[in-house]
Amino acid sequence: YFMRMFGEDAPFEIFVAIEPFFTVLLSFPVTYFLLRHETSTYTSLVVGTLVQSCCPLALLYTSYTSNFAFVFVMALGESIWSPRLYEYSTMVAPEGFEGTFVAVTFVPQYVAAGVVGGPAW
């Protein structure tokens, strides 16, 4: 999409690289905010998923700013739900099976990467 809309010389790599940077950068203040307001793990998962699902709306416009907004909102949503997913997986796991539950949590991600291709393929 990005190269088709902006051409071969567009800085695609920058937009790919800033999403993990923003996710890490936003995780600390977002987690602090959620813990300070005693937000439940399930609520954090739902809110983070809803925020992240809104990021494609930014692509209704074709500009670098809208692509930046897409990446930023995606990172914000991921910084809300991602840390809490590990917590939820271990919270619902029986005693001694926490690692198994965390691994099974990410099976859909591995299956999808095999079907559609991972980031390095």
Automatic annotation (TrEMBL):
InterPro entries, alphabetized: MFS_trans_sf, MFS_Transporters
GO CC annotation: plasma membrane
Any coiled-coil regions, as ranges: none
Membrane topology: Multi-pass membrane protein
Subcellular location: Cell membrane
Alphabetical keyword list: Cell membrane, Membrane, Transmembrane, Transmembrane helix, Transport
Main localization (coarse): membrane
SUPFAM superfamilies: MFS general substrate transporter (SSF103473)
Regions crossing the membrane: 12-35
PANTHER family named in the record: INTEGRAL MEMBRANE TRANSPORT PROTEIN, RESISTANCE PROTEIN MDTM, PUTATIVE-RELATED-RELATED
Protein name: Uncharacterized protein
Organism: Coccolithus braarudii
